[in-house]
Write a structure and sequence with these properties.
137 residues, single chain, 4 helices
Length: 137
Amino acid sequence: MRSLLATVSLIALMLASPLSTANEDRSAELKERMQQAQARLNLTDAQVDQMAPIMERAMQAQKAIMARYGIDPANRGGSGRQPSPREMRSMNQEMEVVRSDTRAALDPILSDAQMAEFDRMQEERKAQMRERVRSSR
């Protein structure tokens, strides 16, 4: 009985580890993005509290889109499947919808100056993603 319990416990730990690691990675990435946003946008604590769930939803949506096209955002080396040019256009269109929705959700939270800086940050992130995709080909 002890052996069975130990085996079940070990399997449960092994199955939970990738999930907890993925959640920790997502949490760390969100925290990093929010720290960057707080510094660059000079956010108040209230703005950070309002912005965090919006950014988390956007990150999850973007990762889901990339996964549908065979891109693993965690694998920055880019050893995954390369989407075709048509798939890349479709993916970019879907990503643009997420960016637009995110911007609309942030509009009542951020000032005009903060929104302009947020747009610059988004453009920088898009350029970085494009560069990663190009360098992995």
